Amino acid sequence: MATPRPCPDGPCCPHPSAVLGVQQTLEEMDFERGIWSAALNGDLGRVKHLIQKAEDPSQPDSAGYTALHYASRNGHYAVCQFLLESGANCDAQTHGGATALHRASYCGHTEIARLLLSHGSNPRVVDDEGMTSLHKVSEERDEGKVLRFGHGVPDPRGWPSDWRRGPQEAVAHEKLKLEEEKKRKLERFSSSRVNLNNLADLENLVQRRREKRLRHRVPPKKPEPLVKLQPQAQVEPVGLEMFLKAAAENQESLIDKYLTDGGDPNAHDKLHRTALHWACLKGHSQLVNKLLAAGATVDARDLLDRTPVFWACRGGHLDILKQLLNQGAQVNARDKIWSTPLHVAVRTRHPDCLEHLIECGAHLNAQDKEGDTALHEAVQHGSYKAMKLLLLYGADLGVQNMASVTPAQLARDWQRGIREALQAHVAHPRTRC
């Protein structure tokens, strides 16, 4: 898979991003539970599951991106093939006018581009910058992968429409490049030699060398003028916005100034995020101790009802998680979608935090609004360590979610999806010897 680069029509992941750090809004939660996140991560089993639940394969997210855009951008061939066979609109455009073919072309996913073209994708569609998918190939690939456009579309560089360098041609091309480089070095060496046929040639050479030394001589530096130190200005009062930003950036001097001036350690922004939330997310252990000592509420809830324990688990900071639980934080707190810190530790792949939560009495079989337990989440995210820990501590394999699916059934769907992807890859003409 090609390394992702900035997308031609905006950020690669258009779902909401955090201000000052990582946060999860209701809109982002919809993205994670929808078909877009599954397509972005190449989770074919979950994509099939959502399509079977009457999910529209062409449904755009808040930024106008469909599941096919995400799968094409990240090179998930099997997901793209299934979405197209399920009726996904291959020419759906984002708010920036890009189609899935634009995304695949820009990132160099040749097979996906050919798959889209075979399903009728229009290579002449232009985005808001007036660029077609072929422009994207020419823009970012000097000797990159070239699409089979057909339809009489001319190639801007004059390449054949089905050109592709084979293994033997690639080796021969590399040898030719090495020979040309040796030839250039030899020519440079030959041109640098000086012919000294008489005394005048020697005098000219000495004069050129003297002039070259004079050109490269560094003049002495002038002494820098002494700068008088200005008296330090008095520190202005620290406002709420600066206080929360200082908590995220670990600026203890500003925190001390705010608290010394009588500021409320439980002050929050419009999303009810306190300084303790930010310090827990960013992993500032000393600052967490200082805020708790100043009277910060250990179970303060943000707009999504998430306590600092949730934020510590999301950041994967085991030391801060221990501090909070030692101060009496609730290990089984629930947010607005009934998720617990155990769910968050599994989703964010932090097995050390997961194990500590279990040892502190977290409910192994707690279910969120969709009926998913932490074991369901571990299977959906393919987290082997989390599954092993949960089963080791006695998680129930028979718990059904709202779709009447157990973790074991989810695992079987996942294995079937992997098998189908491999079979589709082996059956493709490109993989035959």
From TrEMBL:
GO BP field: fatty acid metabolic process; positive regulation of transcription by RNA polymerase II; regulation of sarcomere organization; response to muscle stretch
Keyword tags: ANK repeat, Coiled coil, Nucleus, Repeat
Cell location: Nucleus
Pfam family, one: Ank_2
One Gene Ontology cellular component annotation held by this UniProt entry: I band
Matching InterPro entries: Ankyrin-SOCS_Box, Ankyrin_rpt, Ankyrin_rpt-contain_sf
Cited Gene3D superfamilies: Ankyrin repeat-containing domain
Spans of repeat ANK: 63-95, 96-128, 271-303, 304-336, 337-369, 370-402
Domain of life from the UniProt record: Eukaryota
Physiological role: May be involved in the energy metabolism. Could be a molecular link between myofibrillar stretch-induced signaling pathways and muscle gene expression.
Protein name listed in UniProt: Ankyrin repeat domain-containing protein 23
Origin species: Callithrix jacchus
Designated gene of the protein: ANKRD23
